[in-house]
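Researcher: Structure prediction, please.
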Amino acid sequence: MNFRNLLVGLSCVAGLAACAVAPTQEMADARAELKAAEEAGAKEYAGAPLASARRGMAEAEQQLALGNFSDARDSAALAREDAARAKAVADAIGRARKALDRAKAAKAASAAAEEALQSAQDAARGGDDRLAVAEAVRAEQLAALGENNAALEEARQLLQSCPAENRARHAELLRKAAEAIADGKGAAALDYAAKACR
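Model: Predicted structure follows.
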């Protein structure tokens, strides 16, 4: 019985000691996540969760200064979660924008991809993070599909106009280009066709 009481007492002391230690790691983690969100463009794409993360970080700093380590730890954890959400939205929209830019450069951007990106940005501004990420992923996929289809079409055109002397000299590359076209791999098909026919 005495041993059990001792264990309970030690557990209580350990729990109090953990609360009495400044949450330096939690604060550092929250700051790092906040910085990563800002660098990812969260100010432009995910203002609401970024603002919430900043408020949470300010609250954590204030609680830390007052010596309320448990409250500081909790606020830092919430700030980190909000910053991670903001970063996820900003990253998804950033990837979609880059994919759409590549598709535009290939003259393969679709109206559907642009609409999905706009929908992602609108959802992010409205605070609907899940919809923002989902629409950004859809925009990225549609842009990549357009870019792939444009590369497939260009590869087909190259193969059709490939000079006879190149056909004899680069039969293996032409075979690989045809396989890549059949497999729907636009970038690979275009690469092989360009090497064989240009």
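Model: The longest helix spans residues 69-105.
Researcher: Thanks, that helps.
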